[in-house]
Amino acid sequence: MAEEVEKEEEKKTRKPVDGAFRQQRLPAWQPVLTPRSVLPAFFIVGILFLPIGGLLYWSNGRVDEIMIDYSHCSQYETPVYLAPSLYSYLMSKDTNMTDMEVPAYHYENTTVFQEPEFSNPNNLTFKQCVLDFTVPKTMQGPVYMYYRLTNFYQNHRLYIKNYDPEQLLGHIVGSSTLNTNCGPLAYTSDGRVIYPCGLVANSMFNDTASNLTSVTTGGNYTFSRSNIAWPEDFQKYRPTQYPIEQLAPPPNWALRYPNGRYTEEYPPPDLNSMERLMVWMHMAALPDFRKIWARNDHDDLPEGRWRIYIDMNFDTLQYEGTKWLVLSTTSPLGGRNPYIGIAYLAIGGLCILIGLIFTLAYCIKPRKLGDPTYLSWNKPGGGLPTNKRRQKLEKGE
């Protein structure tokens, strides 16, 4: 008797089975895809993407670009003409290149850096690349100078986080934090703080380039090393608060300081004015990338034969990479990048093609639309399968 009473109480307190699946019947947009609703979407996407892609591709064609590989310059003491695979001239209009002289380079030994901020207290002798190249037609200003690196993985997980933002802001950072963020380049063997610390700053691209000199007329085309960083970057760097005697330059910077140490005469750099470091600290997503080196916002670069001197400080051959000099103009939609325009054109054309194919198929042999009441979400219980256990629970057994 007691068992029967317990069963009756359990039946009264048991929640309805449908309540466990109530979310299946909540109001929601559950469209039924038909040819009349899907086909216009293909044509709309195609009609929008095709003109956008055409505009991007046309804008890309207005950009002039010269790119020269000078990685092996330090191996030749006499002028060597480059193979076609080591340079490219991408001009917005057809240019007669049959009689154009190809780039040539060789190195000279020097003791003076092209970068005014770089000193040479140790009287080092280093190689300087003398690169002659031709501008086949006048490049309309502004003209930008870039360096391009290949096979350099700035996106490596351990590399990309190896710096300390607080130290870059000039703050004194605790040893444990500095070792965590910048190890193994946080401290020197004698306990000095490396400033700026970390792998990123230590590996900064440090080739320095001169202005351009005309080989034929002797005139100069000057570039500005300022205004190459983003405005918000200047908020991330401040003069350091560390005493000079506690600091040491990164290993790859040490040769530019007497005995590899900062002194009153050669103090630590003011990172707030090192725009090239700010540019370098923006990590590249791919191993083949370019970063801005200098710019000329006002003058056109006339056609003719030009010469540039580049200090060979950055070794790319040890990791089988290359480094390139790039001179480029821009358009209102940015620099030279044909892939975005091609992608838009390809997607737009593919959508139009698919839309036409399915439209013809629908017109020639239309498919009868089924009754939407048989769709799973229109069935009682949200379309869940009915089994014996469910039937027993509904009956309260």
TrEMBL record:
It is found in: Membrane. Its main location: membrane. GO terms for biological process: phospholipid translocation. Pfam families: CDC50. Keywords: Membrane, Transmembrane, Transmembrane helix. The chain crosses the membrane at residues 38-58, 342-362. GO terms for cellular component: endoplasmic reticulum; Golgi apparatus; plasma membrane. Coiled coil: none annotated. It is a multi-pass membrane protein. It comes from the Eukaryota. Belongs to the CDC50/LEM3 family. This is Lem3 cdc50 family protein.
